[in-house]
Each structure stands twice: as structure tokens, then as C-alpha cells.
User: What shape does this take?
Amino acid sequence: MTNSTKTITVAGAGPVGALLTVMLARQGYKVDLFESREDSRLSDIYQGKSINIALSDRGWLALESVGIAEEVRREAIPMYNRVMHDLEGNLTRQAYGKEKQAIWSVSRSKINEQLVSLAEQEETVSLHFNKHLTDVDFDTTTLTFNSAEGEIQHNSDLLFGADGAFSKVRRKMQEIPRKRISYSLEYMPQSYIELNIPAGADGSHQLEKEALHIWPRKDFMLIALPNPDGSFTCTLFMNQEGDISFEALTQRGDVEAFFQTYFSDALGLLEDPVGEFMSRKASPLSLVHIYPWVVNDNVGLIGDAAHAMVPFYGQGMNCGFEDCRVLNELVTQNQNDWPEILSKYQEHRKPNGDAIIELAKRNFVEMSELSGDASFQLCKKIEANFHDRYPNLWVPLYSMVTFSPQTSYSEALRVGDIQKRIMVQIMALPNIEERWQDEDIYEHLHHLTVSENLKGEKL
Ligand SMILES: Cc1cc2nc3c(=O)[nH]c(=O)nc-3n(C[C@H](O)[C@H](O)[C@H](O)COP(=O)(O)OP(=O)(O)OC[C@H]3O[C@@H](n4cnc5c(N)ncnc54)[C@H](O)[C@@H]3O)c2cc1C
Assistant: This one.
């Protein structure tokens, strides 16, 4: 155990803040975890609504390291395939990885609560709900919170801002006099609303259960992830403005026609999609870059506070969990030398945060446009075949990001770009649609790949 005299504050008891708290407490630190919301375990703030997200290998690895993976897996549903629904309701199935490789649908609130409960079991952890961070004094690491008891102040040696995409710690960092903080927030053209497909009358799933369903419609898409109770949580991503957009669709008749035209096979399954569409305000999607992530050798950002991204790669939480795992390893290696730990953490994680932000942004096109495209699907089949033949020479980008925690996000981005160049050449070969299983195609692909490797561009 490292020195336990340091006190640490974690602002934000979301999944990342809660996991980080567990890890730091087990390193011997006294940790105070502050959260602006009430304790959802004691209330019904989620009103039975299950918003689910995809957990994949990077997330699992971090959960395993604190011994909670099995508990989470008991209520998680593996999604082995993406199932595309075309306009006529025809289905196309595409495996996410090799046999048995899956991304897992988990309830966001449930996993958050499980991690908070795990943190609570640690003797050196104090949880503080209903405490809204309003100010940070970076010279003394003193935090100010609004609470029912009035304004309170709290002081510690170290502070982690795990307070999400609209982080207060981050905003306060930007106000430190003479600190050069680079920052950007970019809004995507799309916003989203969540919809629901309830369980069938017998409690079963009304669509294939162990799959992520996508209705790709180029500029917009609907996706559905399964829940253990037989329902699916659906998300409609669509432009905020423009011809087909949240702002354009304001009349009931138009919304009905929209669902009828584009999601006819889902329409009968969705629970009051038109009413839900009309009554809900679409949420914006944004991505955030900030540098540095660390100031004064004792304040760091982590999770969405450091790298909010769009959800199209299903990696936001996974990346935040990986931040925690890497930081925890650095704590072990650097024995209480926090300037060193934080500097290495930033050096290691910032390029990876940037890479997954970029990959996630690009993936909207892949999901909404290309997933339904025959040429895209052929390209994926060729890649999968080639990967089967040469598993060490070629790992598809999706697999690197999702199933290969040993490959960093920035490495995945770099290699993925080279693979893309190579596949453009393969897809341009005459009659590739008929010849894609021919041996010479794979010989050519092998040759191109090895040539790239020889150029020093190791794939
Ligand atoms: C539609 C959608 C789908 C997604 N799908 C996936 C997916 O499939 N896979 C995946 O890995 N990720 C997904 N994500 C991303 C994932 O939800 C986030 O990356 C993850 O929740 C980040 O965790 P966090 O703990 O860093 O931040 P948050 O979950 O935002 O938690 C931050 C916490 O800080 C608290 N807080 C905020 N401000 C203050 C304050 N001033 N004082 C005190 N407390 C404060 C908040 O109440 C909150 O509890 C998705 C996101 C969206 C929007």
C-alpha cells in the first residue's frame, strides 16, 4: 500500500468517479466522493427507466481489476451481432467480432449504483450526495458546494474532476489566472431522444435479443439495445435542424408519416413513438477537447470531464474506465509521487482521449450510412476473412477499439487509417463483388499489408 496520509476529493459520482474512488481507496487514500444528485439507490430518480449502454473489453478489464465484473455480467446481455433493418424491414446480420466476442448491454444507472455501493464498502471512503460543486480554489484545493445545509467547503491534497461532460472543475480550471488552457467544445449537427420497445405479452424480447439493432437512414438512425426485462431502449439520432430534423418535425401527422416511412417495422413495436417524439426535447451531442488535463500537480480531469465524445463508438464510459485503470497502475508504480503520476497519466491518456473522440465522431457515418450499404458490408466480410487467415497481421479497426484493450486508441486510429487506404485499393479491384472469396484477392491484400509493414508503417 502506498502512503495513506494524502486525502483525495473526487467530484462527481458517475460511473467513472465511483470506480476511481474504489481504486484510490484501495491504494490506501482517504477519499471524499461528492455528487450533486441525490443517492439514486435510495430514490426513484430514474423512474424505472433503463437507459442502457454498451460495455466492451476496455471497460470489463477495469471492472475486473476491482472484482466487480462478475456481478455486472449477471445482468448484462451480450450483443454478438449488429442487425440492420432496411426500409422494407429486411434484416442483415453482421458479427461484431469473432465467435463469442460481444459488446454487452448494461443499464447505465445500475452499473453506476453498483460502483457507488462498492465504493461505500471501503473504510476510507466518505460519500456526499446532494452537494453541488460551485467553486474551486486551486491554490489551496478547497472546494465549495451548495447543499441543503447551505454552502459548505471541503479541503484535500488532491482533486479529480469526474463531473462529466459539463464539468465544473474543468470550467474553473479555465479561469485560473495566467494558466494557458486550450479548450474546444463542438456540437454535432445531430441530437437524440430515447424511445422504448416494451417486452412482448409473454415478457420476451420482440426483436432478436442478443443483438444491437440499427435502422440506418443516412442522415439519421434509430438504434435499439436489449434490457433484461424484455424491453429495448432505443435512441433516435437525427439532425437538430434541416429538412428532416427535430426542428422540422413539429406536427403530429408529419411525425407519424416519418415513422411510417423510415421505421415501419419498428413502428408497431415502439411504445407511443409519436407522443414521445412530440413531448421530448432532443438532447444535444457534443465533444470536448481540453489541454492540460492536470494543473498544479494536484488536480486532474478524468472520464467525460476530460474527453466528452459522441456515443457512436460506444466507448465514452469504457474510455473513462480505462483512464481509471491506467491511473491506478501508475499509482502502484510511482508510490505516492503524485506530480509524476499525474504527469504520466496525462501523457498517456490525452492522445488516446483525442483518438477515441475522433473515431467516435467518424463512426456516425459508418453506422447511419455505411452499415446499410452493400459495398461497406462486403468490405467488412473481406476484412473478417483476412483477419481469420492472418489474425496477427490484420485486426479490423472495430475489433482493435472494442476487443483489444492492449492496443491503445491512438494506435487503433493510426492502423485503421492505413487499413482504410488498403481496402480502398481492394474494393476498386474489377468484379470484386463476384470475386471477393477468390484466393488471389487475399494474396493481393497480404501483399499490400506486408508492403505497408515494410515501409515501417507497422499494422
Ligand atoms: C446517448 C448516449 C449513449 C451512450 N452510449 C455509450 C455506450 O454505449 N458505451 C459507453 O461506453 N459510453 C456511452 N455513452 C457515454 C457514457 O454515458 C459516458 O461516457 C459516461 O457516463 C461518463 O461517465 P462519467 O462518470 O465521466 O460522467 P457522468 O456519467 O456524466 O457522471 C458525472 C457525475 O458528476 C455529477 N456532477 C456534475 N456536475 C457536478 C457538480 N457541479 N457537482 C457535483 N457533482 C456533479 C453528475 O451528477 C454525474 O453523476 C453514451 C452517452 C450518451 C449520451
Observations:
- The pocket of flavin-adenine dinucleotide is lined by residues 11-17, 34-37, 53-54, 108, 132-133, 162-165, 168, 192, 235, 303-304, 311, 314-318, 320 (CB under 6 Å).
- The chain has three domains: 7-76+104-185+285-363, 188-281, 373-454.
- The mean pLDDT is 94.
